[in-house]
Amino acid sequence: MAVTVKASLGKTKYYTEVTAGENKIITDEPIDKGGQNKGLNPMEILATSLASCTAATLRMYIERKEWDVENINVEVELENFPLTKRAVFKRDISFEGILDDEQLKRLHTIADACPVHKILTNDIEILTKFS
């Protein structure tokens, strides 16, 4: 499945409008980096992709199993180490509901099966062209 997003950045430092189909978000940089902090920064967007995909994947599975879970909370911390070319995603998942150890074990496997998790743990290639 391919998705296409478009980012447009004018002369306002780092304030970027990103569109995907009919949806739009604003990204920006924090004030201490010269931005206006009017939106999530690109690293936050990357962590958001993993957090939201994980939550949605878990919700789909939980609904299919008809388990009683009111809320799924996913917190992702992304730490980048450019000198070693390494990034670490720390994902903390909690549930508001009653789940036993077997269910939690299964949900761990399901969380790792979310499409964004799979992309981030596979080989990634970025092809760039100027037009």
From TrEMBL:
It holds the Pfam family OsmC. SUPFAM superfamilies: OsmC-like (SSF82784). PANTHER family: OSMC-LIKE PROTEIN, PROTEIN INVOLVED IN RIMO-MEDIATED BETA-METHYLTHIOLATION OF RIBOSOMAL PROTEIN S12 YCAO. This is OsmC family protein. It comes from Chryseobacterium sediminis. The lineage of its organism: Bacteria, Pseudomonadati, Bacteroidota, Flavobacteriia, Flavobacteriales.
